[in-house]
Design a protein that fits this description.
By secondary structure, this protein is an alpha+beta fold. Helices cover 30% and strands 18% of the residues. It has a five-stranded antiparallel beta sheet with strand order 1-2-3-5-4, covered by helices on one side. The model has no long low-confidence stretch (mean pLDDT 96). Bound molecules: zinc ion.
Amino acid sequence: MADDCIFCQIVKGEAEASFVHQDDTVVAFMDIQPITHGHMLVVPREHAVLMHDVNETVSMRAFKVARQLAELARQTLGASGVNLFVADGEVAFQDVPHFHVHVIPRYPNDGFGLTFPREYTEPRTRAELDTIASAIRGASG
Ligand SMILES: [Zn+2]
């Protein structure tokens, strides 16, 4: 637990939240600053900053609950799509330093989008992709 962490405060009941799910490992609640209607956050009870800081059981539970909430958003909010999003690290737009999975229901013309770098439109060469793949394979244990 980190005393100044808003998610830890919510988990401990010291800060308000509108819960949609609670179990022994994770909780889920409405984002106070929703990107779209019904934007939810799935948060492990234990404090950990990054995705690799939680064990596989905890991270898999978070994604399992996110998957369930995505389906519920379709059924109850009329969402026609859902984005699951993890901001893992400050450079990846992590706003609260406590690992969480965003469940972002999507609606036609909801205003949410992604910005890609200019070179995105240019497919990479097989050699470049093979080099990167090899580096990643070589590092995985
Ligand atoms: Zn925390």
